[in-house]
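As the work plan foresaw, our protein records have gained a C-alpha cell line. A representative record is set out beneath this paragraph:
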Amino acid sequence: MHCTGYYGECRRRQHRTQTQPDGDSIVTKQDLTVAEPKTGETAEIEVPTLTDENKYVAQVGEIKYTSVKAAIEAAVNGQTVELLRSVTVDEPIMVKHSITIDGNGNSITRSTDGIILNVVYADGTNVTVQDLTLAGNNGGGLLQWTMEGSYKENDSPSTTPKLTVKNCTFSSDDGQKTGAGIGLWGHTSGDWFNAAKSEVVIDGCTFDTLSVGIYYNEEAPLLNLKSTVTNNIFKNLSWTGLASIPANAEIAYNRFEQTCNGAIQYLFNAAQTQTNTYIHDNVIDSKTGIQFMPYHLNEGNQNGGKPTVFVTADMLPRIEKNVRNVDTDLVVLVAYRSATDETFKLAEGVSIDLTKNYTQGVAPTIDVEVQAGAGAPSVDEASAGTRITVTVKPDAGYELDELTVTDAKNKDLKVTKRSETTYTFHMADSKVTVEASFKLIETEPENPFTDISKSDYFYDAVLWAVDKGITSGTSANTFSPDASCTRAQMVTFLWRANASPVVNYAMDFTDVAADAYYAEAVRLAVSEGVTAGTGDKAFSPDADCTRAQIVTFMYRDAR
C-alpha cells in the first residue's frame, strides 16, 4: 500500500477478507500508521498476511481451529467454543453436543441463503449461544432448534433439552427485511404437533431488518415447548416479532418498535387445548400489536377437518401490563385467512381481558396528580408523607375494579377513596407503583315482557335468549312462558344459538316448505344429526316438542 501524506499522521483502516485452506473466510481489520510524512512524500506500508497465529478463528480450551465448524464438531459436552474473530461461512454448522458458543462480540455471516447454526436436540441437550451476531437470510431461521428423530414425541425425558440464546444479534446480510432470526422446529416440516418436551430461553437479543424475529414454526409446531422471551429488541421487521404458536411462553420486558409491522402473531388450533402463555410488561409500538389468528387446515395438520375452533378460556394467553404508545388496538382478531384455513370463535362466555394494560384507545388510563399549593413537588419529586391524589379515568363502559399502590419493597400503601374517581395515599420514602384494574360495567338487561318477572326462575334465561337473538317472544311485550314449544321452534332456537349458519344440505321432508322461517334450522339439525324427522319423509314442524325431545336435541347439538 502507498500512502501520500500531507499533514500529521497518515492512517488507513484495512478491511480484508482472506480465505484459508480448509477454513472460514476471515475478516481482518488493521490500523496502519505512518508518523508525519512530509508533503508529497510516499511511505511504503506492508499489510501483514495471515500468520500461524492470526489464521485461527475459534478456540476450545487450549486448542485453536481455522474454522468454526471444526471447533464445534470437536467440542464435547460442557466445553465452550470461543470465536476469535468474525467469519463468513457457506454451509450450515450442526451443533449436536451440550456446549456453549461464545461469540465474544464477533459475527458469523452466511455467504449464501440458508441456516447458520442448526442445534439438533435430544434428551439432555443443553446449548448456550451468547454474544454473537448472525447475519444472513433463511426463512426457517439463521439459528434453528431442530429435533433429532429419535426424540420425537418424547414428553418425559430424563433431562429436558434446553437452548439459551443471550445478548445476540440477528439480521439479514443484505439490508432486506427477509428471513427469520430464530426458528423453533419439531422433527421435520409437516411434523404436526409433536409432543416432545423442550425449553428455550431468549434474552437480551436484538432482531433487526428481518421478516420475523422468532418463528415458532407452524409446519412443525411443538405442543410442549416452554419458551422464555425477555428483554429483547425487535425492529425493522416486515412481518412480526414472534410468529405462530408460542403456547407455553413467557413473553416479557421486550420492545417492539414502530418500525415493526407486527409484534406477536398467535395462532389457535383445536390440538392446542390450553396455554400457559403470559404476555406482560412489553412495550408494543409496532404497526399491529398482537394478532389472534386461526391455524392452517390445508396440510393434514390433525385438526380433524373441523372448520371452526371454539377458543376456550384455557386457550387464551394472559395479557397484562403491556404499554402501547400508538393509537391502534393492542389485540386484533383475524378470524379467517383463506379458503384453506380454519376459522375461530370465542366460546360462549369467553372474553379477552385487556383492562390491565396501558394503551391508547383500548384500555383505561390512570392519571396521577399532586394536590398541593403553588410550587409543590411533582409525583417524581414528592417527599415522604406528601398526600398524592390519584384520578382514575376509565374508558366508556368500564369502572374501577381495584387500585393498589406499592413501594419499592412491594409493600402495599393505604389508599383512601375520596370520590368515585379520586383516591389518595401518602408518599412513601421510595419510588411507588400505582396499578389499577378495570371491569365492564354490568347493566341490568331491560325486560320487554309483561308476562315474566324477576321472581320467575326462568327470568334470567329468557333475557339471555333475547339478548343473544335466540328468541324475540311471541309478541312485542309477551313471552308466553307457559305455552308449549313446537319442533320447528326448538330447532330454530338451536340454529340461532349456533349463529344462524347457512347449510348446504338437501332435505326431502314433504312438510317443510323451502321458504318456511324454520327451513334453514331444520336443515342444520338434520345435517348435524340432531334429529332425523318423525318418519315417512315428515318432520312434523307443528307438533309439540316434548321435554324428552328437547333435552335430546340439546345433547346431540352439544356433541
User: Anything to note?
Assistant: The radius of gyration is 32 Å. The longest strand covers residues 233-244. The CA atoms of residues 396 and 521 lie 37 Å apart. The mean pLDDT is 81.
